[in-house]
Amino acid sequence: MSGRTPPETSAPEILRGPSGGRATSAPVAGDGTEPSIFELSVAGRRAWSFGATDVPEVDLTSAVGAEHLADAPPMLPEVSERDLVAHMTRLSSRNYSVDHGAYPLGSCTMKYNPKLCDTATTLPGFAAAHPAQPTDQIQGWMELLVGLEDFLCSVTGMHAATLQPAAGAAGELTGLLLMRAWHSARGRQRSKVLIPDSAHGTNPASVTLGGFDVVEVPSDARGLVDLDALRDLVDDDVAGLMLTNPNTLGLFERDIREIAAVLHDAGSLLYYDGANLNAILGVVRPGDMGFDIVHLNLHKTFAVPHGGGGPGAGPVAVSERLAPFLPGPRPEFDAQSGRFEWATPECSIGRVHGWHGNALALARSYAYILANGGDGLRRVADAAVLNARYLQERLRDVFDFPYDEPCMHEFVASAASLKSDCDVRAMDVAKRFIDEGFHPPTMYFPLIVDEALMVEPTETESPQTVEAMAVAFRRIVEEANDDGGAAARSAPRSTPVGRVDEVAAAKKLRLRWTPDDDPGNPTHSKE
Amino acid sequence: MMSPGAVAQTCDHRAANGEGEHRVGHYVPHTDDELSAMLAFCGLESLDDLYAHIPDAVRLVGGLDMVDGLAETDVMARLRAMAGRNSAAAEDLVSFAGFGAYDHELPTAVPALMMRSEFVTSYTPYQPELSQGVLQALFEYQTMVASLFGLEIANASLYDGASAAVEGLNLAAAATKRTTVWVSEGIHPNVREVIRTLTGPRLDVRIAPVLNGITAWPDDLEEPAALLVGYPNALGCLEDVPAAAQVAHDAGALLVAYADPVAAGVLRSVGSQGADVAVGEGQPFGTPLGLGGPYLGLFACRQASWVRRWLPGRLVGETVDNQDRRSYVLTLSTREQHIRRETASSNVCTNQTLIAVAAAIHLSWLGPDGLRELATRCVRGAHYARKQLFRIPGVEPSVSSRTLYEFPLRLERPVPDVLDRLAEEGYLGGVDLTPDYPDLGNTMLVAVTETRTRDQIDGFSAALEKALA
User: Fold this and answer.
1) Which residues of B touch A349 (CB under 8 A)?
2) pLDDT digits (tens, 9 = 90+) for A222-274
3) Domain spanning B112-360 has what CATH number?
4) Rounded mean pLDDT, A283-300
5) Hey, of B35, B46, B78, B122, which one would you mutate to test binding to chain A, going by the most A CBs within 10 A of its CB?
6) Residue ranges of the domains in chain B?
7) How confident is the model at residue B5, as a pLDDT?
């Protein structure tokens, strides 16, 4: 802890109004559990209807063949549309979301997703296009894709991009395959990829899938890449380094030029994990820092809503020397014909998606970038960093901060003292934060911080909401000091269910609904 | 159809624009007074001071080389103009294109429920107490997918059919500790290419040829980890799944079936025919064509010893909370990248949850009888279309094997020319298979879904006859 203890009254007056991003007022009717849709099913009930048709009937047995024809269709629920809509609506009300309130889930950039972008995807000219249509029928779509590639290259300072990867991890694997193709084209494959010990779990998993071995690079006392250790690890068998900058501690790798030089001098490549790009929009560009390959999470930085876990999009942008290896086909504008066409780069690693990527998600980001423009994107970074910096300052005296560098768009606090003082763990703080009307921060990541709480307010939360989150965190810590942590350990109390037994879930697997009398139903075997 | 001039005007995205008033950062709420107060609290004088620790050498000078932000109405006007330069298959044309992406009717309940912010704007359900809605919807989705394929376990989605196929082969390789996989030539060429790209560094991918639309598995499979077969395959043909299962199991391999979930309304499940793993493209349920994404990777498998360690993707399990109430939670996370890192079963993190929820809603709307009716109508339309189209001089079946609701036609003329002529008549005729299956000659793949009427099929037939005349 820093020792500086701003008294509670020191928050600027202007920030102390009611918060627009707090969800304690969210209504919840009742406290029952929602039945399964299969339990709502009644044989013979139906929601479906199909129009009258004058297509001649067929005999299924002769049309399909007796050896292929099923006796009966698969088991599915039989419900009325009214019951289906009610069930799904009730399920939705058992779910917190960005549209409810603040969602400071570190490294996930849970910013507000403009409704404008939703509307863009419903335009029939986009939504109703078949992916295999001849190019002269989809010129508008191809124009959008080329325009988005162009925007993403401007933001990252890179030369060319592929929009095919469907999510961040798919982008990572694509980037690693590009790395592989690059070294292979230069005559000698390399076997190792370096990853900082603070990296996201997808990085090492993608490295393995890319056919490389993972070598971990330690962080130094600043929470940054240990430059001396890096120098020792880099040799001519290192294909590249994957780096997130700002890193997962929310800290800017200020030695980035030296890091790039170490890698490039050894003929290795530098890979940018774009998870934290939100912090540097219009401030620094990966290309200018020396990165060769960049993946972006459009569902973080460029406002594609997260959908409860996707779909996102994970485009990859590269420097000029790697462009010939990009996946194809890519949309290209042919100035001579004045038309867009598909083209596959000469040394392409091949397709990484069944079609052209998560196209409708790409359209959302295109709309978002158009609305913000270059000037607006810079303001995104400014507000994202300022919100995080302010919140960290407000919490300096109540949490531990093992790495005390100026934070960017997020910071990692530690509940280690709280744990030793009142047996309140990061998990308890997170669960108690729910009762304050907010989604919790990311817990227990990065792995190098004990009892980590990773907080990313994002730029779309108003100063009053950020201040309300500060007050909420402070209240939780004060309360724990008063009651020995009892309230925190029993939180949350305001949710449809209390803490869930994850151990039992994994031990006694129940992965699909079965009737109570089904032998596969563990409830059945429970005496 | 678009005019060439329209493209030329708009393809330079960096051009200054005069439309609308300048609005900067609509979605950043901070007023100047608030910014000043927050900066002062942090001991800073200006926004630029936030980045004082970043070396000048890497700082961007002069801001991004991009246009300034636009007002909402101006963004929409631009997008409408772009959308208007598409002749979208399911909007402006009568489409007989399939080949892995199908024009089905979307029940109005699906888009209506897909507007629910709670589904759309939540994160992966890491905090189960706040995420019971998405978790339960995914649990119900898993149940439906397992049921469609006649298997015991389904995951909570993968990116698309291609990525599901890749994960199925990865699972088989891990489960059998082998590296050779046999992929039928009847698997969609794009899927085959994605498999080659993504498994290239680790697996030896061999292609088993199709003869008359059906896979001919070689005699010597050289210790395979898996066989991948389509049902129906990309040519629309119904493969012999039990025979493929026999070949796979005799060789100690897993059978991975790339199965059409609409066809599951009438076909025997691939699980009941011996598949160990089923993968597929879930787009027909709840998702518009959308130029190919976001779609939905379906993944199911039988219960086996390798599930706990090697199943890819998110998995929702049922459990209880601290008051013994039924609850749902992400489970078996010890397989996953955030725990197991470089030895994870997959690198998948963000997947396609929202699309999976849409599919669960669509499947619930259909129920068993509705799904049967949907599949039957597709079969019925295709049966009629085959009869009409094969009467045309210069049109013959490319294969004689049994097809379901999609079938290849051999034409007397090159397919691109025919597609152009059909487009002039308002039809998207199908998909040109000639580049991917040159042995079949000038082949066009035609799909008939429940959305096609008798008049449309008759009209298409007449247009094709004219195009070939």
Assistant:
1) 197
2) 999 999 999 999 999 999 999 999 999 999 999 999 999 999 999 999 999 99
3) 3.40.640.10
4) 98
5) B122
6) 21-73, 92-103+365-468, 112-360
7) 36
Name B143's Cβ contacts closer than 8 Å, sequence gap at least 6: A38, A512, A513, B154
For residue A455, the cross-strand partners are A105, A411
Say whether A374 and B67 touch across the interface (CB within 8 A).
Answer: yes
| DSSP code for A475 | H
pLDDT exceeds 70 at position B163: yes
What lies within 8 Å, CB to CB, of A297 at 6+ separation is: A109, A167, A168, A171, A274, A275, A277, A312, A313, A314, B350
DSSP summary character for residue A300:
T
| pLDDT confidence bin for B335, thresholds 50/70/90 | confident
Say yes or no to pLDDT of A354 above 80: yes
CB of A388 within 8 Å of a chain B CB? The answer is: no
Is A476 part of the contact surface with chain B (CB cutoff 8 Å)? no
Q: Check residues B364 and A19 and name the one with the higher pLDDT.
A: B364
What is the distance between the alpha carbons of residues B232 and A430, in angstroms, rounded to a whole number? 48
H or E element that contains A162:
strand A160-162
Residue pair B228/B251 in contact (Cβ under 8 Å)? The answer is no
Helix or strand or coil: residue A270? strand
Predicted confidence at residue A517, as pLDDT, reads 64
- For domain B92-103+365-468, the CATH architecture is Alpha-Beta Complex (3.90)
Contact indicator for A176, A190 with CB cutoff of 8 Å: no
The ipTM, to two decimals, is: 0.96
Phi, psi of B410 (to 5 degrees): -95, 130
**Does the pLDDT at position A27 exceed 80?**
no
Set out the domains of chain A in order of their start, with CATH numbers.
Answer: 119-372 (3.40.640.10)
**Strand A339-343 vs strand A316-318: parallel, antiparallel, or unpaired?**
unpaired
Which residues of chain A have a CB within 8 Å of the CB of B170? Answer: 209
Element (H, E) at A482: helix A463-483
CA dihedral B154, B156, B161, B163 (to 10 degrees): -110
